[in-house]
What does this fold into?
Amino acid sequence: MRSPNYIRRFLQFPQEISLQFLLIALLALQIICSISIILIVPESYFLVPLSHSIEKIIFLCIIAGILAAIGITIISHWVSKPILELKIAAKKMATGDLEESITISGVSELKELAMSLNQMAKQLQVSLTDLIALNTVDISDRLRLEQELANSQTKLNDILNTATASIASFRVYQNYTWQAEFYSSGCLTIFGYTAEELMADKQLWASRILLEDWQSVIIPCFQGIFNQCNQTVDYRFLHKDNSWRWIRAVFTSRRDEQANCWIMISVDTDITERKEMEQQLKIASDELEKRVILRTSELAETNQLLKREIQERKQAEEALAASQHFIETIADTTPNLLYIVNPIQKRFVYVNQQYVKFFGRPTEEIKLSETFFTEVTHPNDVMKVFENFQKLTRLTDEEIIENEFRVRNFDGEWRWLHTRDVVFSRTADGLPEQILGTAVDVTVAKELETARMQAEQQIHFQASLLDAVHQAVIVTDLSGTIIYWNRYAETMYGWTAEEALGNSIIELIPIPNLQQQASEIMNQLRLGASWSGEFWVQKRNGTVFPCIVIDSPIYNERGEITGVIGVSIDISDRVLAEEELKRTKAELEVRVAQRTAELIQANRQLQHELNQRQQAEIALQEELLERKRAEAALQQSEALFRSLSESAPIGIFKTDAQGNCVYANPRCQPISGLKMEESLGDGWMRSIDANDLNNILAQWRENKTKQQEFSVEICYCHPDGTVRFGRTKIAPIISKTGETIGQVGTIEDITEARAIEQMKSEFISIVSHELRTPLASIRGSLGLIAAGVLDDDPEAAKQMLEIAAIEADRLVRLVNDIVDLERLELNKVTLDKQWCDAYSLMQQSVQALRHLSEESQITLQLEPVSMQIWADADRIIQTLVNLLSNAIKFSPPQSIVKLSAQEQSDRVLFQVQDCGRGIPADKLETIFGRFQQVDASDSRSKGGTGLGLAICRNIIQQHGGTIWVESILEKGSTFYFTLPLPWE
It folds into this structure.
C-alpha cells in the first residue's frame, strides 16, 4: 500500500460577499484495485486558527488517513470476494462447464449479475444441445452429399472413359491460344495418345492435324468459339500409329468472365470408316453412272435381250414394273432424247423427261397429238421424217436407221437432231409395233462442222490463189528463215518448197548489196509501211534475171511484227521489151530516115522502081507490126504493175497534170471513204476536210512548179461520219522533155497511230500536271523555310514541313502507281499465284487501314468467310486496300464500310460497300481509266492519284476476273470483283 498523497487546493466561491474555502485531500490506496479517495472538508471560520498551526493540521490528517485506510480495507474485502467468485464462475463457463450455479451474498448488484450468469448458462446449455443436434444432422447430410457427389463423379468418369469418343475441356483465350484442362480416356482410341501425353505437350494435338485442315477448318472455328456457337467440323489427324484418321469434332463454348476466357468442350469421334464408306459409295456411284452411260450407248444392242427377258417374265408383273421403273429412271436421267414410237399410227408411246424439256410440252400432249410431227418439224424436212416412218415399218431386228432433221424447240429455235432407231417390239404378224429411238442435239456440231469446212475451203482457196498467181510469194521470219514458198517461187528460182523451207533467204537467193538495203527495208517495215524495189537475182542454175520485190510486214495478235511476206515479180520480159523497144525505135528512126531518102529517090524513079517500092512498103508494115508488139508488151507490163498496186497494203493513186485522179487502188477506198469511180477526176476532194484541202492544193501547186516530192497529213470525213487520217506522199511524173505530166502518190492510214500519239500526249500532260502540283507545294513550303521567313515562327515552319512531307508522300504514291500500272499493262508483272485463305487476306487489308478508318470515324465491318482462292496474295491485298481506302475517303463520318466475299459456282465474288455520295451513271466505266475521278477536286481534297482503280482493273484482269461498280447517288456505291476458281 502506498502512502497517501495529499493535494491541497483552495477554491473560492462567492456567497454573500464572503469567502468560503474547501480543503481537498486526495488519498490513493492500492489494495485490490486502484481507489482514489477524495476528502472535501469545508474550512469554516472556526478552522481558521488551525491553519496557523501546522502541527495540528498534520496530526489531524494522520488520524483521518488511518481511519480511511481501515474503512477502505473492510469495504474492499466485502466487495472483492463476490467479484472473485464471479471471475472463477466465468472461467468455468468459458471452458464449457455450465453445470455449476453461482451463489453470491452481499452486494445486491453482484447478486443480480450472478443470477444473470446462471440464467445465461442455462440458456447456453439448451442452445448447445440444439446446436450439437443440428450440427450432427448437417454433418450427416454433408457426408451423404459428399458420398453422392463421389458416386456421381465416378459414374461421370465411367461414362467419359467408356465412351468411344474423346471428350476434352479447354480454356481458349482471345489471342488464339488454349490450355487443356481435361481429356477422357477415349483420346487413346481416337488419337493414339494418353490424356497425360496430351496434357503434357500443349502443341501435340495441333501438330498432328493436317496443315491444310488446320488452316481451312480449325482456325475459322475460333471465331465460332468466341461467338459461343455450336460447331461440327471434320479434319484429318495423324494417329500415333502413323495412319491418317478422319475425326469429327463437336465444339461448344461458354464465356468465363472472371478468367477472361472461353470454356470449350470438344467431343471428337473417329469417322474414318464412314469416310471410307462414303468414298466407296462415291466410287460405286461413279461406276454406276459409267454403267448407265454404257447401257445407254449399248441400248440398241441390249434391246433384244431386254425383249426376251420381258417375254419370259410376262407373268411376273411386279418384277416387270420394277424393271420398267428402272429403265424409265435411266431414260429420264440420260442427257439424250429417248422415245418409243408406233410407226403405223405415227404416235409416241413413251418419251423421257429430256424429250419433254426439249420441246416444252406435256408428255400426254406429245403422246395424244396427231399433228405433233408436222408442228415441230421444219417444213423442208417433213417429207424426210415421213419417209423415215415408212422405212421403220420395214426395219429388221438388228438394223439401225440414222437420220438428221430440224425441229423447233421450246424457245422457238430450229435445232438439228440426229436420231438412231431400232425395233423395240413387233405385232403378232411380225410387223414393227414399237420403235425405240434416241435423239441427240447436233446443232452445235453441225455449225462447227460447217465452220470447219468453210475454214478449210477458205484456206484451200487462199492456198490455191497463192499457187495460182504468177508471182513468187515468200514468207520469212525476222531472221530471214523461209517459212512459206509458193508454187510459182519454185518455177522462178528453181528451188522446190521442201528444199527452200528452213533455209536463209539471203543464202538461197543471192542478191547484190542486199545486206546494205536490209536495214532500210526493216526500218520501213517497222513504220508499218511496205517496201518495194528492183533487184537482179540469181536462179538455182546460176542465171540472173531482174524482178520487182514488194515486202510487207506480218503482225501477230498483239500488233508485233513477226515476219515478212515478199512478192517477187519477174520483169525479164518487160526489160527485154523495153530494150527491144528502144532498139526498134532507134532502128525505126534510122530506117525512116533512110526510107525517106530512098522515097525521094524512088519518087524520081517511081516508074522504074515500082517493084522495089512495094517491097519497101511491106518492110515498113513489118516494122510497124513489131512496134505494136512492143506497145502490147508495155501494156502487159502496166497491167502487171496494176495487179501489184491493187494487192499493195497502202493506197496508191495517180493524177494527170491538172490534178485529176486517173487511178486509185482498192486500198484507197477504206481510207478516203470513196469508191474508186467516185475518186476519179476531182471527186477525191469531196471527202477531205476543207482546211486540209486548201493546204494540199497550195503545196501541190508549189511543188508542181519545183518538181519536188512532198508529204502531208490529211483528215478524211466519210459519208457515214467516220473520220480517218492518212499520211500522203506525192511525187511528180516528169517526161523526157522535163515537163510534169502527172503525179503518183501513196496514202498510209495513220488513224490508230494518231490516237496512240494523242493518248500518249494526254498521259504526259496529266502526269506533268499531277507531278507539278505536289512539287510546287514542296518547293513553296521549303522555299519559305529556306528564305528564313518562318525563323521566328517554329510552329508555322513545322506546318510547312508537314505539308512538304505530305506532298512528297503523294508524289511517291503517284510515281509508284504509274510504275505499277505501266508494268501491269506491259505484262511485266509475274503473278505469284498460290492457294490463299480469303478471310486472312481480307483481315490484313482491314488491319492496314485501321488507323485511317479511326481518323475518319469510319467503322470497317468484315464478314467472316471460309474459302480458298488461287491468286497472288500481295496483289489481291493491294486491290482490297485501294477499294477500301476509296470507300473510307468518300464516306461520311460515323458510317460503315462493309467488306465481304462469297463463293459462287466457278468463282469467288468480293464486295466493298460504302455509304458515300455515289457515282453518276455516265462515269461507272470511265473511273477505271487513268487519272479518272468523279470530281477533279478529289485529287486535292482526298489525296488520290486517279490511278488506283486502273491498277485494280489490271490486277483483276490478269487473274482472269472482272471488276465493276454499282452506285446510287447520295446513298453509296458497291465495288465488285471476281476471281475464277481453277479446275481441280
